[in-house]
From TrEMBL:
EC top class named in words: oxidoreductase
Record bears the keyword Amino-acid biosynthesis: yes
Prephenate/arogenate dehydrogenase domain sequence ranges: 2-289
Secretion signal span: 1-19
Chaperone as UniProt keyword: no
Species classification: Bacteria, Bacillati, Actinomycetota, Actinomycetes, Kitasatosporales
Chain positions covered by the region annotation Disordered: 249-268
Pfam families the UniProt entry points to: PDH_C (PF20463), PDH_N (PF02153)
Name of the protein: Prephenate dehydrogenase
Entry-linked PROSITE patterns: ACT (PS51671), PDH_ADH (PS51176)
Pathway: Amino-acid biosynthesis; L-tyrosine biosynthesis; (4-hydroxyphenyl)pyruvate from prephenate (NAD(+) route): step 1/1
Amino acid sequence: MRTALVIGTGLIGTSAALALAGRGVTVHLADHDPERARTAAALGAGTDDPPEGPVDLVIVAVPPAHTAATLADAMRRGLARGYLDVASVKGGPRRELRELSLDLSAYIGTHPMAGKERSGPLAGTADLFEGRPWVLTPTPETDTEVLNLALELVALCRAVPVVMDAEAHDRAVALVSHTPQLVSSMVAARLREADETAVRLCGQGIRDVTRIAASDPRMWVEILSANPGPVADVLAGVAADLEETVRSLRSLQSPEESERRAGAEGVEDMLRRGNAGRARVPGKHGAAPAAYEIVAVLISDQPGELARIFADATRAGVNVEDVRIEHATGQQAGLVQLMVEPAAATVLSAALRQRGWSLRQ
């Protein structure tokens, strides 16, 4: 691939363009808002000048509601050898393109499983896709050259290709992406009218659950409108679990010991099923989830403190597998939770104490 045209310079389009431009591909940028394309170009994502002739690959990065129409226009104009989109749903755009009687041998639907709460070209980064799954949904009619172009794009963005059926993809993202967004927003909505004293008690748990609730509502309305059936199916299952859990919690208030026991068993069953589901979430580098030990360190909110902790861990010969920061409300301090291999926890704890760090259980 030597040339590409990215249509749509939001977070995903700009990030893909930055990755390609950084690896020597000549990237042209287009957007319904020319100012967004100019912004992406100023960031180093390519040029907002139109290509002089057909490019190797057109990457359509517009909202799902406009994906098929944008692809159809590009294909009819013969803008490239191959065409792909990065919309978060795959079945709908392909069905719309078939209804337009277009030759789909030059098209492949894709979806990079990466994103942020922020949107727009200024949120784009060249490393957004590194190590992330990038779904490809070829069909028997997909031209081999187009599939190879898609695989090259994934490689240049340093993502991990995953081949799936389009309808299976849409059911999968309903479970792992679209429903979590709605559930996060529902929990966050409970905070809107909450008493200020309750909000001040927010800790890391509520921050974790509501992080993605900060996403752009307009963008998510478009995404959910393109995949409503599978999302509704998953939410119906969540609703059934909620109803059963509510009944169990009500039973815990019963004066009858047998009902209280049944309520406790119901709550425990829900929690254990949650444990089992969480254990299936892939861990580091997509491998099976590992059981890490947590070394919790009290840290002050001052420049260089995080760097000092990691430097001390390095001196101890310990690799930090993951990290979390839990901020203390109203204080210039917090807890850094360092996740390490179980065998390294004792070594790291001793080394950090020796260097003056205050550890917590």
